[in-house]
Design brief:
Length: 230
């Protein structure tokens, strides 16, 4: 149930919101090529074909958006797990968590997983090792909290915005194609639509670092808060 909820809200919803340019491109430049031929066979066939292809396009975009959001934006800003807020918060050099709270988290990690995080001196000498150890620990914590509804909600929120940004990147590129092609065809309505779409999808890209950081920190703080309650 949790997996279906995550897929629906964090993957499918942002894909639907960013699939408009791809569907416009399909309807304007692909569907028109076979509509007349299909109508000669069966009147409703073009409609059925459009529904099938549109569904297939959205499913494909779910995979592409997820890939783009993780491989481009998340890796660009966080280098996978190494620079994620979940890692940063447990660094001894990071002051976002109160010292006593961080000590409680360290103690619970040691007691539950038999993992000892590096001291401040060890961390200063080898920060990459400290980050990798924390990232490994975070995976263990997530596994323990996999059925936590509050954490799931924040994970969905983070996943939604991350995938929305990945989808906006592709939607922006397709919108540019629509905009450029409209100059060759002289279609003013399509040109205006292309301009509107490029403006809309460019905004999440511009704000991507702020959005991902903010929701990443929300998720990280909830993760450790919930970890301390078990």
């Amino acid at each position: 149930m949790a997996v279906n909820t995550y897929y629906l809200k964090a993957r499918l919803f942002p894909t639907v919101l960013t699939s408009i340019p791809a569907l416009i491109l399909y309807n304007n430049f692909v569907a028109s090529l076979y509509h007349d031929k299909l109508e000669n066979i069966y009147t409703a066939l073009p409609i059925i074909t459009d529904l099938v292809f549109s569904g297939a396009i959205i499913f494909l975009l779910v995979q592409i958006n997820r890939f783009l959001s993780k491989e481009i934006f998340q890796r660009l800003y966080f280098k996978d797990e190494i620079n994620m807020p979940t890692t940063n918060l447990l660094l001894k050099s990071n002051n976002e968590l109160e010292i006593s709270i961080k000590q409680k988290i360290d103690e619970k990690i040691k007691n539950k997983f038999d993992i000892t995080l590096l001291s401040s001196i060890e961390e200063s000498a080898d920060e990459p090792r400290a980050r990798k150890l924390i990232a490994t620990t975070v995976s263990q914590i997530r596994n323990v909290l996999r059925d936590n509804s509050l954490l799931l909600q924040h994970n969905i929120e983070y996943g939604f915005f991350r995938n929305l940004i990945g989808g906006s990147f592709l939607a922006f590129a397709i919108s540019l194609i629509i905009l450029i092609s409209s100059y060759y065809t002289g279609d003013i309505a399509t040109r205006n639509l292309g301009f509107i779409l490029t403006s809309i999808y460019f905004l999440p890209i511009i704000l991507s670092k702020v959005i991902i950081n903010r929701y990443g920190k929300y998720y990280a703080k909830i993760l450790y808060e919930q970890f301390l309650t078990i």
